[in-house]
From TrEMBL:
Higher taxonomy: Bacteria, Bacillati, Actinomycetota, Actinomycetes, Micrococcales
Species, as recorded: Xylanimonas ulmi
Record keyword Chloroplast present: no
Membrane topology category: Multi-pass membrane protein
InterPro entries to which the protein is assigned, alphabetical: SQR/QFR_C/D (IPR034804), Succ_DH_anchor (IPR014312), SuccDH_FuR_B_TM-su (IPR000701)
Protein's pathway: Carbohydrate metabolism; tricarboxylic acid cycle
The protein's name: Succinate dehydrogenase hydrophobic membrane anchor subunit
Length: 150
């Protein structure tokens, strides 16, 4: 049994791939930019949900329904969802590239990762834009208080 050969620390770096794509550079830049933007979006989200009104005790179905009736908050939450999913997917993609040694394993893991990302982004987007706290045909005893004019 032969032991693996380790290159000398002073030997020049040999590229494993011959592609001339800047995809990894753009991924690195995206992680930095989306991280900064996510900090603003998440802390704004936490401030509005926890510091205004009665704090965590006021978060209920009516609170979310009232918030998502405003297009500003729909876009805010949509940006937060999309950036968080793309940021996390890019980070996990990097981990898969670093630690999955077999090409087949790497392909399967990344396919599952991309599938999960697409499913969460599509379903989350649908929920944000189709959410209706006051469906027109619902029984009155099941509707939240915000559906009735005071």
């Amino acid at each position: 049994m032969s032991s693996p050969v380790i290159d000398s620390p002073r030997s020049p770096y040999a590229r494993q791939r011959t592609t001339r794509s800047n995809f990894e550079l753009y991924g690195w830049i995206f992680m930095r930019a989306s991280g900064v933007l996510l900090l603003v979006l998440i802390f704004g989200h936490l401030f509005v949900n926890l510091m205004t009104g009665h704090g965590v005790h006021s978060i209920d179905f009516a609170f979310v329904g009232g918030k998502w009736s405003n297009p500003f908050w729909q876009i805010w939450d949509l940006l937060m969802l999309w950036l968080a999913m793309l940021h996390g997917t890019n980070g996990v993609r990097t981990v898969i590239n670093d630690y999955a040694s077999k090409d087949g394993t790497r392909l399967v893991l990344k396919a599952l990762l991309y599938f999960a990302c697409v499913v969460v982004v599509v379903l989350g987007t649908l929920v944000i834009f189709t959410f209706n706290p006051c469906p027109p045909d619902a029984p009155a005893d099941l509707l939240p208080s915000l559906c009735f004019p005071s």
